[in-house]
Design goal:
Blueprint: E1 33-35, E2 41-43, E3 50-51, E4 72-77, E5 91-92, E6 94-96, H1 101-108, E7 116-124, E8 128-129, E9 133-134, E10 137-138, E11 142-143, E12 147-152, H2 162-167, E13 191-196, E14 210-211, E15 213-215, H3 220-226, E16 235-242, E17 252-253, E18 256-257, E19 267-271
Parallel strand pairs: 3-4
Antiparallel strand pairs: 1-2, 4-7, 5-6, 6-12, 7-12, 8-11, 9-10, 13-16, 14-15, 15-19, 16-19, 17-18
Length: about 280
């Protein structure tokens, strides 16, 4: 058997209260699972992003709010046809968050007219937006808005941006993922970044279920240590909320003893978290 290492991109948002979005549905590919050497399970493929219309904006998914600033979302845009109605977009490379996602991506050069996958990061609002002719489209000027958005590409999808590091929720070693407000079933497939502090001297293993895949009510930081994605010195961790894939198997790793448990209706897996680089800077 082979051991699968998960290496993926990151996303984050600040939890500022309020209900989790109720309309964020994710489609999944039929992905095979690889069993690790110590009995855990890991994802073998990334879920397909949600399909959009050319008129769809972030508000359609109820994620255009301060709670999700710093968060990244992946979508699938359809092919542009002659019948596709044009919609106004505001800004150049940095767009107002209510701009239609696919049209803004096309203007930014993050998408071709044949459609495809785009990843957008929700950022704090800009003081103003300047429109211009770019990639065959004309965007418009606009005064300040509360939030803006930029497109991030595959070349630096694994790096944390300064905004992500600033807005990533600060959690404690006793914080369960279910306590963050981000465990909503509609967010299955989404990725989240958290910042763990340095571990307390009396750190002990508790409330961790599974290996590679963990119960979604497990302690975030402790599970990340067990998964090998965090040390006791603390730091940023990235996880994805996923569909269950069989019973959770406990094991002993990195000084943490996890327990076995039922599959439940959601699970979490930890991904590589890469420090910010020059390529990670937003437009």
């Amino acid at each position: 058997m082979t051991k699968t290492l998960i290496n993926d991109g990151t996303s984050c948002g600040r939890t500022r209260g309020g209900a989790a979005p109720q309309a964020f549905a994710w489609a999944f590919v039929a992905a095979g699972l690889v069993v690790s050497m110590d009995g855990g399970q890991a994802l073998a493929a990334e879920p397909e992003p949600t399909g959009l219309e050319w008129s769809t904006d972030l508000e359609h998914f109820q994620v255009d709010s301060d709670k999700f600033v710093g968060q990244r979302f992946s979508f699938q845009c359809p092919e542009l046809t002659k019948r596709t109605k044009r919609h106004a977009i505001y800004g150049t490379n940095v767009y107002s968050s209510d701009s239609p996602i696919c049209w803004a991506a096309l203007h930014a050069g993050a998408l071709s007219r044949s459609g495809g996958r785009v990843t957008v990061q929700l950022n704090p609002g800009a003081d103003s937006y300047s429109g211009r002719e770019q990639n065959g489209l004309r965007s418009q000027d606009r005064p300040a808005t509360k939030r803006s958005m930029v497109f991030v590409g595959d070349a630096y999808a694994e790096a944390l941006t300064p905004i992500q590091r600033e807005y990533a929720p600060r959690v404690k070693w006793k914080t369960k993922f279910t306590a963050t407000g981000l465990a909503n079933r509609k967010l299955v497939g989404q990725r989240f970044v958290f910042k763990c502090p340095e571990a307390p001297a009396n750190l002990r293993g508790r409330r961790v279920y599974g290996t590679d895949r963990y119960a979604f009510n497990s302690l975030i930081c402790l599970s990340a240590v067990h998964a090998g994605r965090l040390t006791r010195a603390g730091g940023f961790v990235t996880l994805r909320l996923v569909e269950p894939a069989g019973k959770l198997v406990g094991s002993s790793r990195h000084g943490i003893e996890s327990k076995s448990g039922s599959a439940g209706n959601r699970q979490i897996v930890f991904l590589d978290t890469v420090a910010s680089t020059a390529k990670a800077a937003v437009h």
